[in-house]
Amino acid sequence: MIALIDYGSGNLRSVEKALAKVGGDVRIVSAPADVLAADAVVLPGVGAFGDCVTNLAKLDLVNAIRDFIATKRPFLGICVGLQMLFESGDESRGVPGLCVLPGTVPRFADGRLKVPHMGWNQLRIKRPDCPLLRGVPDGSHVYFVHSYYGQPRDNAVIAATTEYGIEFAAALWRDNIFATQFHPEKSQAIGLKMLSNFVALQ
To answer: Over the stretch 72-84, which tens digit does the pLDDT of each residue have?
Structure first.
């Protein structure tokens, strides 16, 4: 069973439909016990970093997510679900993240490029051995909508990058932790391939 966490922020239905399409047994959950009972967990995210972390805390889900990750079962964070894995974010200074990965979440600099970054970008695959990226060709296009991006302290966790003014982390991988700054559920066949890879990890 894949637990899709509902904490009042996230495009749950599109993620649910995409996971189900590739064979996932998906259940939308919001209780810590249901998170800990799952075979795999997906944490989506849309909106502000601080609001998302605060909503998780109100539902007692912060420690549940950390405890689940510690069991080494598969975990996938999407968009703000990736950003919350870090220690802090520029969008909500003073609000700690989940502190699962060392690093911060800066904002794109204002300049010639429009912020938020919205649209299709190519992946540069840095870790072809990443299980989430199995069968995904280098240069594949995926869909982004964001103004902030994860900046890990350890570049070894970066599985893929893309460029928008700067090169930044598009996908992360450490042990059982997978995360994408882009939206696989909106990335057509390539995104479905990644979600299929995730489902197969159970």
So the answer is: 999 999 999 999 9
Q: Enumerate helices (H) and strands (E) in the chain, giving the number of each.
A: 6, 13
Domains of the chain in start order, with CATH, are 2-199 (3.40.50.880)
Q: Determine whether 130 is an active site residue.
A: no
Residue 99 known to be catalytic: no
How does pLDDT run across 141-159, given as a tens digit for each residue? 999 999 999 999 999 999 9
183 is catalytic: yes
Length of the chain measured in residues: 202
In this model, does residue 91 exceed pLDDT 90?
no
Please identify which of the residues 16, 52, 79, 117 carries the catalytic annotation: 79
Single out the catalytic residue among 16, 130, 146, 183: 183
Whether this prediction's pTM lies above 0.85 is answered by yes
Geometric angle at alpha carbon 136, from 77 and 169, rounded to 5°: 45
